[in-house]
């Protein structure tokens, strides 16, 4: 990483920013002491994409809206039968 004095940044701002735009990372110094770092902006990733890249999550296997659970007390839903079926699937 190259260091540039703040004076050079003030006098050649366009040239310095062009270097950063082309991928260089530059450290700005005042009296020889680093005070700032100019880095190129990378395209933003969604939180899910970033977590998948870090290995902290699995990529989604389907797209579209997540189905809502049935309303509490819905007489058409037999929770016991659904749970028994899910347990049977796990056993095999």
Automatic annotation (TrEMBL):
GO molecular-function annotation terms? toxin sequestering activity
Q: Which Gene3D superfamilies match?
A: YefM-like domain
Question: Coiled coil where?
Answer: none
Alphabetical list of SUPFAM superfamilies matching this protein: YefM-like
The entry assigns this protein to a family as follows:
Belongs to the phD/YefM antitoxin family.
Q: Entry's PANTHER family?
A: ANTITOXIN VAPB46, ANTITOXIN VAPB49-RELATED-RELATED
Question: In its UniProt entry, what is this protein called?
Answer: Type II toxin-antitoxin system prevent-host-death family antitoxin
Q: Which organism is it from?
A: Streptomyces coryli
Taxonomy-wise, where does this protein's organism fall, top ranks first? Bacteria, Bacillati, Actinomycetota, Actinomycetes, Kitasatosporales
